[in-house]
Design brief:
0% of the residues lie in helices and 56% in strands. It is mainly β.
Length: 113
Amino acid sequence: VQLQASGGGLVQAGGSLRLSCVASGMRFRPRVMGWYRQTPGKQRELVMSITSADNINYGDSVKGRFTISKDNAKNTVYLQMSSLKPEDTGVYYCNVNGPNYYWGQGTQVTVSS
């Protein structure tokens, strides 16, 4: 399984970005697809995830600002980020939870104040 994330970049505080992650080589239906964020000196933390039943889990810091969705036919998960804050800066990794955990290569999101 390979995960290709895209959509990161530099944005001013208050702006928006949309991340996409395409999973290829996946011969199973994932239990969970999601996004994690890592900043220097901190552990990787959950941003948002969505299950095969469309149940959503999220970190408290993004509640009301981020939205996660998926397209099962395209094996793609999206993260719509709005009202971005400088503390949202980090490397965003997409994750697929199936028979194993799979990680994408990460995409940098930088929010300037």
